[in-house]
């Protein structure tokens, strides 16, 4: 306890308030629109505590957020998809750590961005609910690929949403199942950070404060989600995917030149 108090004395109060507020707002939006909370936190968190240490702090906050979402959406989880996704995703995350410095992450984010922007045309601006059939077994290679890429480039935002939608998940079931999958992979990520000594006492505090804000955001966001129709949720989902895709394209368009 004394260590925590000593650390708190070295952190400006506006950092703690700002991180809590950022976590709350980002995960209200994330809960209502099907993800992207970590991506929304990147610029704010980086500006407050530094770009180099933002990823582990955001990942810790996301793990805390996902734990609270598991509680809130437990009855809506499609465990039949989780058992396909998680094992291969864990393998992908570990393998990506071995080749982290050898691939150009900019190309990956650029291609992901183009795919996300294209979803608004694939789903005809929210008028259709499926664009291709997604078998459950397809989540085995998908889990590996997405975990591999996200470990290399950081959060990939809502890239998984089209696959969940085409597997027949909507609203609460989509949020719940995506959360369960992310939670188990997140445990491996945070365990890796801790094992390699990435976390300092100050980063633990930052992550916990950001995570507490995210928990509050989840509770508020679920109330908004309950009042939304499936069609409204689908439109929000598409809006988030397109915005996330445009951000990725703008940030990485320089790899073309």
Automatic annotation (TrEMBL):
InterPro entries listed in its UniProt record: TM_pro_TauE-like, TSUP
Membrane disposition: Multi-pass membrane protein
Subcellular location: Cell membrane
Keywords in alphabetical order: Cell membrane, Membrane, Transmembrane, Transmembrane helix, Transport
Segments traversing the membrane: 14-33, 40-64, 84-100, 107-125, 137-160, 180-197, 203-221, 233-250
A family per Pfam: TauE
Broad class of the protein's primary localization: membrane
Record family assignment: Belongs to the 4-toluene sulfonate uptake permease (TSUP) (TC 2.A.102) family.
Protein name, per record: Probable membrane transporter protein
């Amino acid at each position: 306890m004394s260590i925590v108090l000593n650390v708190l004395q070295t952190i400006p109060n506006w950092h703690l308030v700002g991180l809590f507020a950022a976590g709350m707002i980002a995960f209200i939006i994330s809960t209502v629109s099907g993800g992207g909370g970590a991506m929304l936190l990147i610029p704010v968190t980086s500006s407050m505590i530094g770009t180099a240490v933002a990823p582990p702090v955001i990942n810790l906050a996301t793990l805390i957020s996902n734990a609270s979402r598991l509680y809130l959406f437990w009855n809506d989880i499609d465990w039949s998809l989780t058992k396909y996704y998680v094992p291969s995703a864990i393998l992908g995350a570990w393998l990506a750590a071995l080749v982290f410095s050898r691939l150009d992450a900019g190309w990956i984010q650029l291609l992901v961005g183009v795919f996300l922007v294209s979803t608004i045309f694939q789903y005809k601006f929210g008028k259709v609910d499926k664009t291709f059939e997604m078998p459950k077994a397809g989540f085995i290679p998908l889990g590996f690929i997405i975990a591999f890429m996200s470990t290399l480039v950081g959060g990939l935002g809502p890239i998984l949403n089209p696959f969940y939608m085409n597997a027949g998940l909507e609203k609460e079931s989509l949020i719940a199942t995506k959360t369960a999958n992310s939670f188990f992979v997140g445990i491996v990520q945070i365990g890796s950070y801790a094992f390699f000594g990435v976390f300092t006492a100050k980063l633990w505090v930052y992550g916990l404060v950001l995570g507490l804000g995210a928990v509050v955001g989840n509770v508020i966001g679920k109330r908004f989600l309950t009042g939304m129709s499936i069609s409204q949720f689908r439109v929000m989902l598409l809006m988030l995917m397109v915005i996330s895709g445009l951000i990725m394209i703008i940030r990485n368009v320089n790899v073309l030149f």
